[in-house]
Amino acid sequence: MQGLCLENGRLTHKSNIPEPECRAGEARIRISLAGICSTDLEMVKGYVPDFQGVLGHEFVGIVDAVADSSDEHWLGQRVVGSINLGCGSCAVCLSDGPEHCPNRTVLGIHDKNGVFADYATLPVSNLLLVPDNVPDETAVFTEPLAAALRIREQVRIQPTARTAVVGPGRLGLLTGLVLSLAGTDVTMLGRRPASLELPAQLGLNTGLAADFADDSFDFVVEATGNGAGFAQALRLVRPLGTLILKSTYAGQVNIDLTKLVVDEINVVGSRCGPFAPALRLLARGELDPRPLIVGEYALRDGLAAFERAAQPGVRKILLRP
Amino acid sequence: MQGLCLENGRLTHKSNIPEPECRAGEARIRISLAGICSTDLEMVKGYVPDFQGVLGHEFVGIVDAVADSSDEHWLGQRVVGSINLGCGSCAVCLSDGPEHCPNRTVLGIHDKNGVFADYATLPVSNLLLVPDNVPDETAVFTEPLAAALRIREQVRIQPTARTAVVGPGRLGLLTGLVLSLAGTDVTMLGRRPASLELPAQLGLNTGLAADFADDSFDFVVEATGNGAGFAQALRLVRPLGTLILKSTYAGQVNIDLTKLVVDEINVVGSRCGPFAPALRLLARGELDPRPLIVGEYALRDGLAAFERAAQPGVRKILLRP
Fold first, then answer.
1. What is the mean pLDDT of residues B113-140?
2. Number of Cβ pairs closer than 8 Å across A and B?
3. What average pLDDT score do residues A146-161 get?
4. Is the pLDDT of residue B196 over 90?
5. Does position B252 have pLDDT exceeding 90, yes or no?
6. In this structure, are A110 and A199 located in the same domain?
7. Distance between CA B158 and CA B161 in Å, rounded?
């Protein structure tokens, strides 16, 4: 089969990858559509240096094989799937789930081939059926939408909280839309006016981060994907406020911790979230992520797709095998 | 009167400071005993560059004057006092109290003369009566003990949580003692075996930080007072764990934020705490801070006292006017 592989830090399109076989408990999925996210771009830059294999973790597809006969009802079903595979037996898996299992693999990120390919495999326990009224172009956003919803699992945000999302990119925009659903007044903050056009079209408040005074917000989400974003977000959060960190990237950041201590800021790292609520939002039509799509590429043109996705201001680029 | 003054970054003992006068709502306190804390040492190093005046914020003393006749019942009373003075009328004061008032002054730290002097003033609303069974040498610890208790206001710590305090210094030790009170298993971590002798004598578990594997603790308090402490504390906290920051110091720290996001760590800045619960602990004898005292100096020997307090491994140095 074909696939986009990261090998020794270099991304290449290959046509001779062996088709994956289902292991016990697994399903094989024929990928219908996949999305490029910032983590994929960071991985090409070396964010997970030891990863070798097929990239990609945002997808929707059709189950075309299962290992166990008891899972045959999955055959032909349209699915999305959560991306962390825990060992299932350690204390972390049993108490907190697979997301923090020390022995986990992660689809397209950590020791497990991803979805920028014709086929991928996942345990059936990771799969969720996509409701018929959710088109592929919407369902492919389930994973990043779940990541945005993770914030609601971690902290309580008052609907009256002055809330900002720093970084109006792929994940930042979904986060702004999710936080707005509860009636919260959300301002999307960027560095350039052009980056604020789409958020404004989607009905969100917008502004240039530099135009806001220190301590302007009760609640700030950092989703810039770069180190400078942390200092900006910390500057904007008020004393006793909360700062959610959503960016993952390689590299160190120089931080003045004094404000964090003196102003008693609560900083919360935030990663993967719950798929079922994300699918419910999409099925009910409470949130439509499709305006984020700026282009769709055939998988064989994946390198061009990655180049495009890395351009400033480009949101979601999709890949179709 | 005499006092220890910070002027243009230099600490001097002066004998010709005008005695402070009570403003409306204030009491004047004759200082009986005061304590040097790490913040005082950091201030001499330039942590609050614009502060000019008498240093010091940990004290016990006797009220010897009040501005308002309605406050005369305070005269002759032995008191401690909280150190943040809010404007009392802004939204922050009305909702969160004076600790985060943007217009606040802070005793001996921010635009308000402190307690390393014969006399100091505070609003009577900041004062707390010291129970008769609490000696001065114990009462003088009320402020740092309150700061340790602040953690319990901010986060819930399961009694079963594997808990560590990195930095077995003045505040670190009080924090370890406070967290132990709920039956929690607390390990005091240091860099040198000598720093662990007192914590061990006080019945706390001890260890060298470097001897513990990554992710060893559910809950870690960073109380080292230096930048290297953050990285060590972050290394030791497990995925989904909590890291409390107690250190205030001047300077930037270089941080790898990846672990914070991927492991979804909760980082909580923590500063001043509640005085009444701290006094209750001391009055009930549930916690005796006096083993931390390593020396008492006359206020006129304050410079020598500061030198001693800055030595590695030295905990509480007291000053008696």
1. 98
2. 111
3. 95
4. yes
5. no
6. no
7. 5
* Local confidence band at B177 (pLDDT 50, 70, 90 cut-offs): very high
Residue B274 lies inside a defined structural domain of this protein: no
Q: Is A100 exposed, middle or buried (0-12, 13-18, 19+ CB in 10 A)?
A: buried
- Give me the long-range contacts of B289-292 (CB less than 8 A, separation at least 24): B289/B138, B289/B141, B289/B145, B289/B174, B289/B177, B289/B316, B290/B137, B290/B138, B291/B198, B291/B201, B291/B202, B292/B141, B292/B170, B292/B173, B292/B174, B292/B198, B292/B316
Q: What is the pTM of this model?
A: 0.94
Same domain, B70 and B34: yes
CB < 8 Å from A in window 177-236 of B: 215, 227, 230
CB A252 within 8 A of CB B234: no
A247 pLDDT band (50/70/90 cuts)?
confident
B302 pLDDT higher than 90: yes
CB-nearest to B240 from A96, A240, A263 is A96
Whether the Cβ atoms of residue B172 and residue B233 lie closer than 8 Å to each other: no
Q: Are residues B89 and B170 in the same domain?
A: no
A162 shares its domain with A124? no
Rounded to a whole number, what is the distance in Å from the CA of A187 to chain B's nearest CA? 22
Residue B240 lies in a domain: yes
Chain B hits for A271, CB-CB cut-off 8 Å, are 261-262, 264
A157 and A230 assigned to the same domain:
yes
Which residues of chain B neighbour A247 with C-beta distances below 8 Å?
A: 257, 261
Average the pLDDT over B110-132 and give the result.
Answer: 98
A264·B271 Cβ contact <8 A? yes
ipTM: 0.94
Q: How many domains does chain B have?
A: 2
Write out pLDDT tens, residues B15-52: 999 999 999 999 999 999 999 999 999 999 888 888 99
Q: Which amino acid is at B63?
A: V
The predicted model gives B137-147 an average pLDDT of 98
Element housing A164 (H / E): strand A163-166
CATH number for position B129: 3.90.180.10
Q: Does residue B177 sit within a domain?
A: yes
Cα–Cα distance, A147 to A199 (Å, whole number): 19
- Any residues with CB less than 8 A from the CB of B90 and at least 6 apart, and which? B101, B102, B103
> In terms of domains, do A254 and A293 share one?
no
User: Which has the closest alpha carbon to A148: A203, A186, A118, A113?
Assistant: A186
Residues B89-101 pLDDT 10s: 999 999 989 999 9
Residue B242 lies in a domain: yes
SS3 for B79? strand
Range of the domain at A261: 147-269
